[in-house]
Design a protein that fits this description.
The complex is a heterodimer of chains A (119) and B (455). Chain A has 119 residues and is an alpha/beta fold. Chain A has a domain of 62 residues. The radius of gyration of chain A is 33 Å and the shape is elongated. Chain B contains 16 helices and 15 strands. A 4-stranded mixed sheet of chain B has the order 7-6-8-15. In chain B, helix 5 crosses helix 6, helix 6 crosses helix 9 and helix 7 packs across helix 9. The chains are: A alpha/beta (119), B alpha/beta (455). Chains A and B meet through strand 1, helix 2, helix 3 and strand 4 of A and strand 1, helix 2, helix 3, strand 3 and helix 4 of B. Strand 1 of chain A pairs antiparallel with strand 3 of chain B, so a sheet runs across the interface.
């Protein structure tokens, strides 16, 4: 009877040790992430020495119900920097759409741009 | 653009814009932040904002904009070349299962629930379920259009399939979903949801549940295939990092398993084609069809009206973020009831619904400012409709494409393919026939893919 009890204790101890070893065992797993593309750095456009005599477009991306802010910004910039020509323009189509013609126009006039706004 | 530019962003999106400007290759973009939100703020408050400071930098807003356009660039700002990215080892450093599980949670590799660790043995077993090579490209995926796309191979999809708890036999179905390149966690503030419907012989082959609880958490195949789409979206498509690559304000619980279920093709009324046949595939093809939307209602309501009229009434007054598209998920006995009322096909029923639903006045006027202006100027028929008050149902359907008016939400969806329907109503049949219940939501069809080509 006593011998049987000793064997039982040893058996339980053996199982416990095996479980402990499994938990401590180091395994190798795959990286679940995909491949990110490379990022090509774009040099920023040279800045103006001053905005006096320059034209700056305020481009409204037309996010819903943000017009009051855009108009207040336009008015404030005109008042604070009167020697700059400020042009308020709506971007074509929706706020998620590109407007290459407008970008071309801004570039052709050697103008600056403020692009706004969402949410 | 190639000209001095200052973008203005509300302060809530600092992480987003910082991440995106880095990934677009302009890490030092000169941004001026405004208080958040700007939408629906009155002019006098906006005036105060403009006269005040950038809430993040503390600089006066107008002067910061001026400086952004005039302050000379640093040498770094003018430099071309490449920006650094984290390296991507194929295998992670060895560690204990518990530590690796914690690492997966910390890195955002999971959906917040436990995953199966993708060991070499398990991934090898998954890969045996396809004839495609492990290093073959499957597709690319991005969180939303402004974000970069990530690329992934068959092996990378297999890793995520293991993590989701999928059996190897589900793998071709998962690859078909991945091949569409549509993230299940679209990064918009509006908390998108996705849906995937499986058709064809594969449904029975892999034991998907088409019966009782088809849309619920009772089947390993339905659950793990749907769950895998979200793990793929996070790990292979770069989605799901709050503030950067996921912006859903409240989030969407449907993202956990993406409403993944098969169509009960055996339960379709005579003449009603399965979804994949509607989309141009053969009945013997196995196909996944993806949908994009936000929400779904389960309609459990007894009515003295015939069920097709109940559905019409629900559709007329249904309102959610997606107001110009709908998907009905009918139990087979509901489909049979509808068919018995004289609708020999899904298309016939969809046409009836589109032609016989109007738009609640308050919703119509809020979405049609030009027509509202004309109504106020006395132009008919708008003036007559407006006179009848906001409670009037305007006789203009939201669900027909015949007038050339397409869903305003198409920009958020994958390109449409196969057969373009004349209505924006889709009908799918699934369920166990325990009662005459059905579901409806604002989901729109976003494309299908063959499972067979990934076997």
């Amino acid at each position: 009877m006593k011998t049987r009890a000793v064997w039982l204790v040893l058996l339980i101890a053996g199982f416990a040790a095996a479980i402990g070893r499994a938990a401590d065992e180091r395994i190798v797993v795959f990286n679940p992430r995909g491949i990110q593309p490379e990022i090509r750095k774009i040099p920023m456009a040279p800045r103006f020495a001053t905005l006096d005599g320059k034209t700056v477009y305020i481009v409204d991306t037309k996010y819903p119900n943000t017009k009051p802010f855009v108009e207040e910004l336009f008015a404030a910039l005109k008042a604070k920097y009167p020697k700059t020509t400020w042009i308020l323009r709506d971007k074509a189509a929706g706020y998620m759409d590109d407007d290459p013609n407008l970008w071309k126009e801004i570039k052709s006039k050697n103008a600056g741009a403020i692009v706004l706004l969402g949410h | 653009m190639g000209v001095p530019t200052v973008p203005m962003i509300t302060q809530r999106f600092k992480e987003l814009v910082t991440t995106i400007s880095y990934k677009k290759g302009i890490p030092n973009m000169r941004i001026t932040y405004t208080p958040h939100p700007i939408t629906d703020r009155p002019a006098d408050l906006c005036r105060k904002y403009v006269a005040g400071n950038d809430p993040l930098t503390g600089q006066p807003m107008l002067e910061e904009i001026y400086a952004g356009l005039t302050k000379p660039l640093s040498a770094e700002d003018s430099k071309a070349g490449f920006l650094e990215r984290d390296p991507r080892p194929r295998l992670l450093p060895p560690d204990t299962p518990d530590n690796l599980m914690e690492y997966f949670y910390e890195q955002g590799f999971t959906d917040g629930n436990p995953i199966i660790l993708p060991t070499e043995k398990k991934v090898a077993e998954m890969l045996k379920a396809t004839s495609r090579k492990p290093d073959e490209w499957v597709g690319q995926m991005r969180p939303s259009p402004p974000h970069e796309a990530w690329y992934y191979t068959v092996e990378m999809v297999a890793v995520n399939a293991v993590m989701a708890g999928a059996k190897p036999e589900y793998f071709p179905t998962i690859l078909a979903i991945a091949s569409k390149g549509l993230t299940s966690m679209f990064s918009s503030t509006s908390s998108f949801a996705r849906m995937v419907v499986v058709n064809g012989p594969v449904v029975k082959e892999i034991g998907m549940n088409t019966g009782i609880g088809a849309m619920g958490p009772v089947s390993r195949a339905n659950s793990s295939i749907g769950r895998c789409w979200t793990l793929i979206s996070k790990n292979l498509g770069g989605s799901g990092k709050p503030g950067e690559t996921y912006l859903g304000s409240q989030g969407n619980p449907l993202n956990y398993d993406n409403l993944c279920f098969p169509e009960t093709e055996d339960g379709l009324p005579p003449g009603w084609n399965p979804l994949h046949v509607q989309k141009g595939f053969k009945k013997s093809d196995s196909v996944v069809s993806l949908f994009s939307g936000w929400s779904i209602n389960d309609i459990a309501w007894y009515s003295p009206l015939p069920i097709h009229e109940v559905i019409r009434g629900w559709l007329e007054h249904f309102f959610s973020f997606g107001t110009t598209q709908a998907t009905l998920v009918l139990d087979p006995i509901v489909a049979a009831d509808v068919a018995s009322k004289g609708y020999p096909s899904k298309e016939a029923f969809a046409k009836y619904l589109a032609e016989n639903t109007g738009t609640p006045g308050w919703l119509y006027w809020s979405q049609h400012p030009n027509e509202l202006k004309q109504a106020k100027e006395g132009v008919e028929p708008y003036a007559g409709w407006l006179k009848q008050g906001q409670g009037m149902v305007v006789p203009v359907s939201r669900y027909t494409r015949a007038g050339g008016r397409v869903s305003r939400n198409t920009a958020f969806m994958a390109s449409k393919d196969n057969n373009e329907p004349t209505t924006s109503i889709e009908i799918v049949v699934t369920g166990g026939g325990t009662n005459t219940f059905w579901s409806g939501g604002d989901f729109g069809y976003a494309g299908s893919a063959s499972v067979d080509q990934w076997r």
